[in-house]
Amino acid sequence: MTSLSAEPGRPQAPPGEAPAHRFRAALRRRRRLLVVLAVAALLAQMAAAMLSTAWSQSPTTDEPVYAASGVFYLKEHDLRYNAEHPPLGKLIIGAGPVLAGARVDAGFGGDQYAAGRHVLYDWGNDARRLMLAARLPVIVLTLAFGLVLFAFARDLTGPAGGLGALTLYAFSPDVIAHGSLATLDVPMAGFLLTAVWLLWRARRRPLYVPLAAAALGAALATKMSALPAVPVLMGLAAASVWAASRRTRGPSGARRAVLIGAMSAAGVALIAVAVVWATYLAVDPRLRWTTPAGVPPVGGLRGLAIALMPFPEPFQDGMRLQFRFEGLHWTGFLFGQTYRGPLWYYLPAALLVKTPLGMLALWALGVAALWAVPRLRPAAPYLLVPAVVLLAAASTGSRNFGVRYAIFIPMFLAVVAAGTTLLRRRWVPAVAGALLLFVAVSSLRTYPFYLPYSNEAFGGPSKTHLRLHDSNVDWGQDLGRLADRLRDRYPGEPVWLVYKGAGDPSYYGIDASDPRVAPPGQVHGLLVLSDSWIAKSDPRLTPLIATSERIDEVGHSITIFRRP
Fold first, then answer.
1. Quick one: which H or E segment has residue 141?
2. Whole-model pTM?
C-alpha cells in the first residue's frame, strides 16, 4: 500500500536517513536563530552605549549648526545655512528636532553659528531634549550600518566572520563616539560602505548597481569628502558587471561585457549626481540661491574642476568654501607637539592611538587573509582601495582635527578582519576570540568617555589629551559634567572658563569669566580649561597655567586648576 504522505514522482529518502535530515534542518534553524540573537545583542549594547552617551553629553562644536540648518531646511525650505556641506545629512539630523516640535524664527538673519545657538537656547526650545532628538536619527543610521557591515562580512566569510566584524564595529570607541553625535562623518562613511557592499553583490546580480549608485549619491549628498570615492566606485561597478557577465558570455562576448561595464560605470556617476540634485531640490524645489559672502573665487585647475562638475550651484559654492578652509593654516597637536599646518601622517598616527590594540591586530590578520585565502582575493579591491584612497585624500587636508575624518577605516577594516575566520591555522579561533574579547573589554572600560578614548599602549582615555586634541579628546561634550562637578565640589568659588564647544555655560548654571580678556593679576580662583585650549599653547593662557595648580579633571577633556 502506498503511503498517503508520499508525493508521486518524488524520490523518497531511505528510512534511516529521514530522521537525520530532519535533525540537520533543525540544527541549521537553531544556528540561524543563534546568529540573529547574537546580532541583536551586539546592536543592543551598542544602542545602549550610544543613547546613554547622547543623553549625557553637551553639544559638541558642529552639532548645533547641523541641527539648526536641518530644521531651517525642513521648516523654511531655506538653503542658506552651512553651504560647505550638502543637505542630506542635515535633513536626517533635522528630522529629529522637527518631529520634537522645534521652534524657529523664520525672519532670523544671523549666521549659521548664531542660528545654532538660537535654536537651542533662545526660541523656547528645550536644549537637551532637542539635542537628543537631533542625535537619534544618526544613532539609528549607525545601527543600520551595523547590519550592512554584518551582511557584507557574512557574504564574504560566513556567519562567524559576520559576527566577528559586527563585534569590532559595535565595540569601536570611535564609531560609538561619533555615531552618537548629530554630525556627518558616520552617515557619509556608512553610505559609502553600503555602496561598496552592493557593488560586491552586483558581481552575481548586476541589478544591485543602481542601488549602489544611489548609496554613493547619498554619501556625496552628505559630505563632499566622499568625492574621491566616485572614480573608485565607478571602476568597481565596471569590475562587478564584468565578473557577472563572465558566467554567461561566450567567447565572443568580451567586447560586449566591456561596453556594458563602461556603461555601468557611467550610470553610477549619473545616478549619484541625480541623488545630489534631488537632495537640494527636496529642500527648495525652486533652488533659490544667492552666493553667500565669504565664498572666495577659485581659479586654476580647482576652479575648472568645480565649474565642470554637474552639481547644483550651492554644491559648487560649498566646494569653494572647502577650498578656502584648506588654504588656512590651522593649529595641530600630535604627541605633545603644537604645530601649524598639516602633517601627512597625522591620521595614521591618530588612528594608532585611538584604535583598540586587539582591533589593530585583527585588521592586520584580515589583510593577510585577503592575500592568503584565494576566495577572498577578489574582495581586496572592494575593501582596501576605497579605504586607502579616502585616507590618502583626507591625509592631504589641512585640518588635523581628529580621526572622525577617517571614520570609514574602522568600518571597512572590520569587514576585512572577518577574513581571519578563513585562515586555516589551529591557533586562529582562540587568538581571534581573545582579541575580540580584548576589544570589548577595552571599549567597555572607557564608557561613557568614548570621545577621548586611546588604547592601553598610550595610557588610556585619561592620557589622550597629552597626545591629541580637538575631536579626538575635547569637542565640548562635557559642559554638563563640569557644571555638576563645580556644584558638588567647588560651590561658591570664582570660575574662569575657556571652553571649546557650542554649549552655553549659563544654560548649565555655570557663572564664569573669560581669563583671556582680564589682566593676569585679576585671575584668582578656579581656572577651568578645555584640554584643546591647553594643547594650543595660547600665549594668554600659558602664563596662567604655569602659575596654577592642577586639582581636577572632568571627562578626560576639561582640566581644573586653582590659581591663588
1. helix 127-157
2. 0.94
In the chain, what is the straight-line distance between the N-terminal and C-terminal CA atoms, in Å?
Answer: 104
Q: Tens-of-pLDDT digits for all 564 residues of the chain?
A: 444 444 455 555 565 566 777 878 888 888 899 999 999 999 999 999 999 999 999 999 999 999 999 999 999 999 999 999 999 999 999 999 999 999 999 889 899 999 999 999 989 899 999 999 999 999 999 999 999 999 999 999 999 999 999 999 999 999 999 999 999 999 999 999 999 999 999 999 999 999 999 999 999 999 999 999 999 999 999 999 999 987 666 555 677 878 888 999 999 999 999 999 999 999 999 999 999 888 999 999 999 999 999 999 999 999 999 999 998 989 999 999 999 999 999 999 999 999 999 999 999 999 999 999 999 999 999 999 999 999 999 999 999 999 999 999 999 999 999 999 999 999 999 999 999 999 999 999 999 999 999 999 999 999 999 999 999 999 999 999 999 999 999 999 999 999 998 999 999 999 999 999 999 999 999 999 999 999 999 999 999 999 999 999 999 999 999 999
| Contacts for 195 with CB less than 8 Å, ≥ 6 apart | 212, 213, 215, 216, 219, 233
Q: Which amino acid, 175?
A: V
3-state helix vs strand vs coil in the chain, percent to 5 = 65, 5, 30
Measured in degrees and rounded to the nearest 5, phi and psi for residue 124 equal 80, 15
Kindly provide the b/e burial profile for residues 22-31, where b requires at least 16 CB atoms within 10 angstroms of the residue's own CB: eeeeeeeeee
DSSP codes joined into one string, 28-93: HHHHHHHHHHHHHHHHHHHHHHHHHHHHHPPP-SSHHHHHHHHHHHHHH----S-TTS-SHHHHHH
